[in-house]
Amino acid sequence: MSKASMQCVSSARKSSSNLLACLILLVWLPLSLGKVKVGKHVVKLTEESFNDLFGTNDRPDILVKFYAPWCHACQSFAPVYSQAAQVVKERNLPVKLAALDTDQAKGLAAKLRIQSYPTLFFFPSDNKTMKSMAGIPRSAAAIVEWLEMMSGPAVRKLGSLAELVHPAPGDKAQVVLTGLKQPEAFASTADSLRLVSNWFWLEQAPSTGEAGITEIRHAGEPTLTFKWKVLDADDLDEDSELFSTFMKKGLVPLLMPASNPAKLMQELEEGAVQADGVIWVLLNSSAAGSELPEVGSCGSTATATEGEETCSAPGKATDSDPAAALEEAVRPHRAMLLEAAVELSVRRQADDGEDSKKKKNSVKSYKMIYVDQHRWSKWVEKELYAWDYPHIVVQRFAGGPRHFFSDDRRMPSNASELIQFVKDTVLHTPRQRTQRPEESEAGGPLKKLVGFTMEAELRSVPATVIYTMKGADDLSTEDDIVQQEDDMEGLQRLAAWLQKVCLVPPLVAVIDVRRNEVPLSLYSSASISTLTAPNVYFVPSDVDNNNKKNRFGNGWGAAISTYIPERLKDGLQRDNRVISKDLSGIANWVLELSRNISGLKVPADDVKMDDIDSSPGVVDLTAASLKAIVDSKSSGLVEFFSPDCYACKKFAPVYESAARTLHRDYAEANLTFGSIDCSSPEGQSLCAKYKVDAYPTIYFLKGGEFLAYGGGSKKKDLIQWLKRELTPTMSEVSSEAEALKAIAAASTPAMFWRGGRAAADARFALVLQTAKELKHKAGFFALEEDLGQQSLADNQVLSLLWPNGKREHFDPAEFGSAEFDPDVMQLWLAEATTKSQREPAEQPGPVHIVVGKTFRKALFETGGKHVILEVYAPWCKHCKELAPIYEEFAKKMHEENYNILVAKMDGEANGIPFEGFSYKGFPTVFYLSPESITPIKVSERTLSGLVSFARKRVGRSAPAPGQQASATVPTQPASGGFMEGLLEKFKSEDLPSQQTSPVLTVVLRNIFDVVFSDTRDCVLMVYAPGCPYCKAAMPRLEKFAIASTKDGKDIIAAKMDGEKNDLPMNNFEYKGYPTIFFVQRGKKEPSRTWVGDGSVQQMERYLEAL
């Protein structure tokens, strides 16, 4: 007997009441909880005992762990859960911990919608709404802490208000009710918010005469008060609605940290957290060693008490505890910020009558939120237009304009200064959307402007040529990107040309108006519009020689000109290629305007435009010009196209742009980029000569020889592929760092060879051969100091290095196999260059998790197992719908002991290093048999469909007597025992009573008798009763059967309902209706298969040709 039981029996001797309590503890509770324990102090429930227990009104609070015996995560979590149960018992908490095996309670698991394991549900003793614990707790302490908040009453009863200690910074808010009873709205709100606040009730009438008073107490903030008119109000009464508003407004403190500012801003904008205005305090608490600006903050304007810190240096950054670090960063400013927040925010009181309605529109409530700018730098830059710290950003309403207290990162010296700034925000110009100035350089003579510094930049030079453009985003097409690249290339040429021909040229600049707002002064006076971008503007400075601004009200103080191409003046359609289409015209326009600007020195006369012309692009080829190119041993690309081809029209500007770029980058290579029109008589002859059967077709011309082009159709694909071809197979570098620098901007890795380049070295010869074959997958480099040396075998290593941008999904790797087999090396490279998540430490569920680096092991090294693999995406709605079905399918295969691995892989985070596994959408399901390396796609998306598919192909790991080990059934006489075993696993209709149709009816029960014969052929059509193509094909099949009988042919026609019968024989696979199989006499598998509309006609033509 346990110690607790002995104590119970000992105390029972003293009184009858103790005896009764002892009986309840020792008899009733174990019986009601199921008797069996899973771990110490954890009671095992069954579905029956669960239902019995929750059908009673007298039970404790219970935490139930729902688990599955095959779940590795459940096994790892079991000792944590058991330890929590031990702590709960030691602390005598009024809650019991239990566990339930969902494999033995599938109905209950489905009812509770349990989709992952383990799952924790808390069931309160009052049978109110159950609550689930988010995630899997990492420690017993986390479980116990959560239970302490959840178990027992949500509202703690007080003897007096003196029992309460006012919350300290970081403590939860206190909600205190004074009244003779708890209103229904108060009790229900307390139950739902018990995890985020502490609730109390003082059972006495308020001294002020109201029916009841509810107070919200925050650390360092004034107490907020709600006055109840009646305490008997239900959840729908006016008092309850006003109380709900009061709680939304007041439960969030005036000064609060933002652990997730993105989520908090969304809640503010949607009204889930209510505030009229928001004050963001941007600090740094996570950048270790960051240099904080030498600015301090003074605290309260009130007189400081002795020992109280009123002014201090910035807080130190630390990464150990993000929440604690953020509190440490705000500590020097807390008193000042809190005083300002209290002064600025007038809380709405839920008074009755017209007064509250009048107050509603006059009251202003601010939330002051402090954020770790370093940790959330991208979000802060995107949403608040800030990139450094400290800053105070004021929004007069959630999502409103961003008013910066100081652009030079100065914090307020006291609360009064901040209060005055907030009150005067309407007088200050807000910061508009902008990128950070540090990223303003576009390279070369071209300047990149950002909204924040745009006005200052324009005033720093006599005049500026501005190109407005919309940077590429997720909706940009390839044509949009190419047009923009062409214009940027033209802009670079314009800037370089102006510097060449002018002593003092105007500045040439570009601004992305998708990510930067144009200052109001420029927008209002010149209509520099974001809507009509791209455009070109000429903007003189509005500062005169006396360094004074010539302002026209709020507008720019100088006349701004907009370039209008001649083609637009003539009414032609607008083209987004503003620069590249009319570069010479823009250059002359700029010179003309610049001659009138003081401070610029430009040529007085027209200038030759030879230097500004773009590189040559694509040339039209004839038979004669093509022959000349081939004879000259030239290299480049040749496109065969048709003018009517839509894909050719889309490809034309991409090809033209890529040609110009490659001509510029490889000016000494004498490259050729040509196109041949296959619709002309001469073009038709050339297309036939080079076997062109699709448009556009691209050939790689190398030394006058036509070779296959293996790249993509995008500009970057064309450029990257040809650059790879023009780059030496293996480059010499002095160090690994030099190799990394060479691939820094590339999307492919570098193969780094250490081990010499001696001609007689067989391993180096193999590496060089591999480099030639895989040059489009990786760059190859060798150390210069190893040239001419014969290295030892144990020093020869081929390393795989990744550029910085790719290290998230790829790991460095080394190949040092003793054999240096080319096939092994290529397989190693294929796997090493495949994107992959980290290999999971354990498999938490019945569905095996596959990542890129475990793909070969999971699918091809299964020990003879069949594999079904789902490729999914986390965001995919259909994948989420399939997930519980797929998991149930995996469990069913496991329970029935089928020789199959059911797996899944995140197709966005992982790649597949083997051919044949191509997919264009999610989810895609593949099946791979152990005898094959080629997968087939599975179309089934229901549990019954997946199970039926698997049973047709997969055998059980330990087959029962009389059953086949493989579900791919060999055809053999339908002996009683064999057919009985077959029908246990596969569905079949009953045998037809009689055969009256010329087309015989086949079911699984008689398939061996009808279809397989040594003396005659058979045509079997698998159909579906509702299929219109099947209905149309059936009369023709009957006609064929009658004709075959009349002609004395040894062939039989048969039909099978594919929805009511399985067909688990070798190679009898069908994915649509109708499907016709032709089985020759003496054969056990179909010789030919036809699918869909017209399949009978195809079958007839085939048989006539035999």
Would you kindly provide a written description of the structure presented here, covering whatever features stand out?
The chain has 1106 residues and is an alpha/beta fold. The strands form 9 sheets. The chain has a 5-stranded mixed beta sheet with strand order 1-3-2-4-5. A 5-stranded mixed beta sheet has the order 6-8-7-9-10. The protein is built from 34 helices and 42 strands. The N terminus is likely disordered. Helix 4 crosses helix 6 and helix 11 packs parallel to helix 14. The relative contact order is 0.04. Helix content is 33%, strand content 18%.
Helix-strand layout with pairing:
Layout: H1 3-12, H2 16-33, E1 43-45, H3 47-53, E2 61-67, H4 72-90, E3 95-101, H5 106-111, E4 119-123, E5 131-132, H6 140-150, E6 155-158, E7 173-179, H7 184-192, E8 197-202, E9 212-217, E10 224-228, H8 238-250, E11 255-257, H9 261-270, E12 277-283, E13 297-298, E14 311-312, H10 322-330, H11 334-344, H12 354-360, E15 366-372, H13 377-384, E16 391-395, E17 403-404, H14 415-423, E18 446-449, H15 454-459, E19 463-469, H16 478-501, E20 507-512, H17 520-526, E21 535-540, E22 561-562, H18 566-569, H19 578-581, H20 583-594, E23 619-620, H21 623-631, E24 635-641, H22 646-665, E25 671-677, H23 681-689, E26 697-702, E27 705-708, H24 715-726, E28 730-733, H25 736-742, E29 750-754, H26 762-773, E30 779-783, E31 797-801, E32 813-815, H27 822-832, E33 848-849, H28 855-860, E34 866-872, H29 877-895, E35 900-906, E36 924-928, E37 936-938, H30 943-953, H31 976-985, E38 1000-1001, H32 1007-1010, E39 1017-1023, H33 1028-1046, E40 1051-1057, E41 1075-1079, E42 1088-1091, H34 1095-1105
Helix pairs in contact: 1-2, 4-6, 11-14, 16-22, 22-24, 33-34
